[in-house]
Amino acid sequence: EITKEQQDFMNVILDAYNRHQIPPDVAKKLLQEQYSAEENFLLLTEMATSQVQVLVEFTKNIPGFLSLDHEDQIALLKGSAVEATFLRSAQAFSTKMPSGHTEVLEERIRKSGISEEFMTPMFNFYKSIGELHMVQEEQALLTAITIMTPDRPYVKDQQAVERLQEPMLDILRKLCALHHPGEPQYFARLLGRLTELRTLNHYHAEMLTSWRMNDYKFTPLLCEIWDVQ
Ligand SMILES: CC(C)c1onc(-c2c(Cl)cccc2Cl)c1COc1ccc(-c2ccc3c(C(=O)O)csc3c2)cc1
Questions:
Q1: Ligand 1 cavity residues, CB under 6 Å
Q2: What was the ipTM of the complex prediction?
Q3: Which long-range contacts does 91-95 make (Cβ < 8 Å, 24+ apart)?
């Protein structure tokens, strides 16, 4: 049963998740600008930059994050940025996107200079997230759990991160039982998505390399968080 303090904790995370989203004026640009590989790439770069800013603000609201060692805070953000963005864009695809955005976002991603070999794993992931029909609390908590992954590169005090991640996993387990009573395996399926996310990191690194080889430029924030250029 979810305790009172677990419910309070969940409300903090959910409130932060809802407060920090890509601004609607940025999102609706997806619908307006023309279609060319360069235009698509520019738009997606703007989306990713805005998404990273959103991610940083969300992360600062995760109880305990700001008490971690500062270098570990950076290591957690850099280590989880791509995975958290995949989760957020996946949720945008499968749930709340105003109609029309979804096809447009997919179209622009497919025509932004990403090579075919990365499309399949990427859109398989989007599909597998969509099939889970996560409720908002699960989406918010899964994102916070992804950020609070202790074994990211360069994290010094992994125990401190574990102490923050474990309570969130416990709440998520209870939420899954609450919202998906007919699916005892649902929690395990959610954790399976986190494993799938890690494989996407690898594909994403290759995508960055191939974009850079074609002289595509990123914003300073993306260069910093993704260690490029
Ligand atoms: C630099 C750029 C070319 C790039 O490199 N790798 C990826 C990249 C890709 Cl192509 C896939 C997955 C992850 C990344 Cl980083 C990207 C594009 O990143 C995106 C980031 C974020 C959105 C995104 C999220 C939410 C929402 C919502 C909503 O919430 O309602 C409405 S519109 C929208 C748009 C899309 C794309």
A1: 21-22, 27, 30, 41, 44-45, 47-48, 51, 82, 85-86, 88-89, 92, 96-97, 101, 105, 109, 112, 218, 222
A2: 0.98
A3: 91/129, 91/134, 91/139, 93/126, 93/129, 93/130, 94/126, 94/129, 94/130, 94/133, 95/134, 95/139
